[in-house]
Amino acid sequence: MIGQIGPLVEGDRPQRRYMALHISGGLMGGALAGLLLGWLGQTLQLLVPTIAQGRLTILPAVLLATSVMDLSARRLSFLRGTRQTPGLWRCSFGPAGASLAWGVDLGAGVTTRLPYFALAGLFTYALLSQSVLDATLVMGAYGIGRTAAVAASIEASPDRARACTVLNSCSERLERVVAIASALVAGALIGTLRL
What we know:
Elements: H1 2-5, H2 16-47, H3 51-71, H4 89-107, H5 119-128, H6 132-156, H7 163-194
């Protein structure tokens, strides 16, 4: 897929402007997702005022459930998102536009084989944060992180055509780290409820 989107992996070295566009797209996609989730959360709070009281129990429950799903591995793999970024974007938008669009796509958290269930915890936080600004900042940071990780993997790969292999080889280990971190955050949040 990375080879089809192309501009980040073509030639001996990817052009820096394509990487910058890709990461900028990640920020835009994440910020837009956060803006929408924050707005939806505020609307939800108007409709269901008691949700503000439940957010301290909803978020740890989501984090704990998703970390268990991530750690239990293969039995639940059918629940994962699998929409790939369209390879046609390169023809439609050109190399620079495809890099930007791919970043927006990844930053919004809706594509390229949603790797972790724990990402639902991030969406839940953005939805229940009661602040459009907080939701936008958190999701924007996620977008930058996700696209920067892709760009760094491509940069580190000696063979640009094998960049997908590099990303996939790190995916399982990273999934476990994210799941354990998610469970620890859930435990910490549950611990604050007892105080």
